[in-house]
Specification:
Blueprint lengths: L1 H11 L8 E8 L2 E5 L4 E6 L6 E5 L5 E3 L4 E4 L2 E10 L5 E8 L2 E2 L3 E4 L2 E9 L2 E8 L2 E8 L3 E4 L2 E7 L2 E8 L3 E4 L2 E13 L2 E10 L2 E5 L4 E4 L2 E9 L3 E8 L1 E8 L3 E6 L3 E4 L2 E8 L3 E7 L5 E8 L3 E3 L1 E3 L2 E11 L2 E10 L7 H4 L2 E6 L3 E3 L4 E9 L5 E10 L3 E3 L6 E5 L4 E10 L3 E15 L7 E7 L3 E6 L5 E7 L2 E2 L4 E9 L6 E7 L4 E5 L3 E3 L2 E7 L5 E10 L3 E11 L2 E12 L30 E4 L22 E4 L3 E2 L6 H13 L1
Protein name: CARDB domain-containing protein
InterPro entries: Ig-like_fold
Organism: Thermococcus radiotolerans
């Protein structure tokens, strides 16, 4: 009888499930707070007295004043303070509820907290805010942080630990648990006890010592005591959870005190009975917003660029006035340079090109931001294998908002293949309040443009023809160049004359014994160049002609015989050279004439003569067609031709 009385007392003193979970702190308005199915929506706030209009799940509409609260179905909602402005507002509130089961979700303003899994030593949470989420393990009794949330758990609390009386309902949270019956069977010479437990009407069978997973409950089945009592321990398959929502800053500030909040500096300039004058400054101390805030449970704050600042109380301490400041920073709304400047930079080019053939490209820069952009620099980052031909504008004093500039380019591909052309980076300066100088450098880039460059085929056929002749007489020299390649490219034509030859040539440049000119030909095109040479000594001579384009050289030559005797040109004599121009397709025409110039005796294309006394004259005759230029390009080609001439 005594044992039975103890059991009955134990049964009668079983603990119930209270509202052991909570959410407290400052939430942005409008707000949703609470467990799914028992949450509260805060949809409106009165600017006259600060009362809020709330909608508890399944309870309709309620008006809660500052300092008021409501209760329903095991949940509670309390409203403590409000901080408001026309841009954003925050509410200081409390919400209580019994527990959070595994797999259930909790709404905390802009956050969602999911209890993914739980064990006796802790639980795994998935916390989401906006488009980001993070999985966090929270050990029992430890607080973890995410954003401005502080979260702690009491995992798998014991809801019941005692004796269940047969056929008597026990309420455990939202469940009813009944020890319904038991059976004893004999198997292999032993007795087996099977207990029948009903959880909210659903049957579970187990032997003593086993654990029943009954949805939100874990029931550890103990020993039978007689036929009417069953020892049992019931744990929640979830957790008591406490969530604290912290402001970005909360503390007491004295008059004149400056505090750093995010990218801002905040200073309390003057404190009055029910208000204070505060300033919001940039990192260098320049004031960008200032004004009055009211002090109290319903505070009118000051806002700038994601920062809301208010005060809930004031006091005098150590002879100085202080205010209890509460501040919130929405990082997404803090001004960024990208918010005040936006350039749409496009790098337009064809998808296909041919090696060594220039093509047209364009840079288009459009100011799509809210401000004018000043001191704009354009940097063209071409990949290896491309170069820009000519100049292009790379600096603009200003690009007004909504306006565009277009930069034409002429580019030369020097390699073949599927290549990256590169991109364009544009740097400018935009007005920015958080900059110490009021402006900030911004940079925008285009996409990386790719282009398929087909390989070039460079080929030329050179034909040289000249007849035999006599000393001092004109000999026609015809050079024909045929483009056997697949593109039209610039080439350099070089004619190497033997020593002791003069020449008449239109639009050629003379460099010692070489005559050069540049030209272009379309694929399969040909052109003949007409020159005149004048030998000054008899012999057999080779005239070589070469064509060079992008490092490739094609050449041919012809041999002529010159008869007669070496001419002795006296000081007062001259050789008549026709100044009639030869046939040529090049303009302008150059008139050939005989001139006398003092030159060293070993100069090429010079005729040296003796006087009657056998003395060498200090004046020599040189016949030049076109202009005479020293130190010219194409040295490699000329040296190659010269080497061949020296071999002879």
């Amino acid at each position: 009888m005594k044992r039975l009385l103890v059991l009955v007392l134990a049964f009668m003193l079983l603990p119930g499930v209270a509202a052991s979970s909570s959410i407290t702190g400052w939430l942005p308005f409008p707000a949703r707070v609470g467990i799914d199915g028992g949450d509260v929506l805060v949809k409106d706030i009165s600017l006259s007295d600060g009362s809020v209009l709330v909608y508890p799940n399944g309870m309709g509409m309620r008006v809660v004043p500052v300092g008021g609260s409501i209760l329903w179905n095991g949940y509670s909602f309390s409203f403590h303070n409000a901080l408001y402005s026309s841009e954003m507002s925050y509410l200081n509130l409390s919400y209580t509820f019994p527990y959070l089961l595994e797999g259930e979700k909790l709404f905390v303003g802009n956050y969602e907290v999911l209890l993914k899994s739980v064990g006796e030593k802790g639980g795994t949470l998935v916390v989401s805010g906006g488009e980001t989420s993070k999985e966090i393990y929270c050990a029992a009794g430890k607080e973890v942080s995410y954003g401005n949330l502080g979260i702690s758990l009491m995992p798998m609390p014991v809801l019941f630990d005692g004796y269940l009386k047969r056929n008597k309902n026990v309420s455990v949270g939202e469940w009813s648990v009944v020890f319904y019956n038991y059976t004893v069977s004999s198997e292999n010479g032993g007795l087996t006890e099977i207990v029948d437990i009903r959880v909210s009407g659903k049957q579970y069978l187990a032997e003593p010592g086993e654990t029943i997973d009954a949805g939100g409950l874990l029931i550890s089945v103990g020993e039978l005591v007689g036929s009417d009592y069953l020892k049992a321990s019931i744990r929640l398959k979830g957790a008591y959870i406490r969530v604290k929502v912290h402001p970005s800053f909360e503390g007491w500030l004295r008059e004149g005190k400056t505090e750093k909040l995010g990218p801002y500096l905040v200073r309390v300039d003057k404190i009055f009975n029910d208000s204070a004058y505060v300033s919001i400054m940039n990192p260098c101390g320049r004031v960008i917003r200032s004004g009055f805030i009211t002090i109290g449970n319903f505070s009118s704050g000051i806002y700038y660029g994601g920062l809301l600042l208010g005060a809930t109380a004031s006091r005098k301490r150590d002879g100085a006035m202080e205010v209890h400041v509460v501040a919130f920073i929405d990082e997404e709304k803090v001004p960024k340079v990208s918010d005040v400047a936006l350039l749409n930079v496009s790098f337009l080019a064809p998808g296909n090109a041919t090696q060594f053939v220039p093509f047209e490209a364009r840079i288009i820069i459009k100011n799509e931001g809210p401000s004018d952009l000043k001191y704009v620099e354009v940097n063209l980052n071409l990949s290896d294998g491309f170069k820009v031909l000519g100049d292009y504008p790379s600096y603009f004093e200003e690009i007004p908002k909504g306006k565009s500039v277009e930069i034409p380019l002429r580019l030369l591909p020097e390699k073949a293949g599927n290549l990256s052309l590169g991109n364009v980076v544009v740097t400018g300066h935009a007005p920015y309040a958080l900059s110490c100088y009021g402006v900030e450098e911004v940079s925008f880039s285009s996409e990386n443009r790719a282009i398929d460059v087909a390989p070039v085929e460079i080929g030329y056929r050179v034909e040289v023809s000249a007849s035999n002749g006599s000393v001092g007489k004109e000999i026609p020299l015809n050079v024909t160049v045929v483009n056997t390649g697949n593109v039209e490219l610039p080439f350099t034509l070089t004619v190497a004359l033997p020593k002791g030859f003069a020449s008449i040539a239109e639009n050629f440049t003379a460099y010692g014994k070489w005559l050069t000119r540049t030209d272009t030909l379309a694929p399969n095109g040909s052109r003949t160049y007409f020159l005149t040479v004048i030998p000054l000594a008899p012999g057999e001579y080779e005239i070589s002609v070469g064509v060079e384009s992008h490092g490739k050289v094609f050449y041919n030559s012809t041999t002529i015989k010159v008869t007669g005797e070496t001419s002795n040109v006296l000081e007062n004599s001259s050789i008549e050279i026709s100044n009639e121009s030869t046939n040529s397709t090049c303009e302008p025409k150059v008139v050939t004439e005989v001139i006398k110039v003092p030159v060293p005796c070993n100069e090429s294309n010079v005729t040296a003569t003796s006087s009657e006394g056998g003395m060498l004259l200090k004046e020599k005759l040189i016949y030049i067609g076109g202009s005479f230029v020293g130190g010219i390009v194409f040295i490699l080609l000329l040296a190659w031709i010269a080497a061949r001439m020296e071999e002879r």
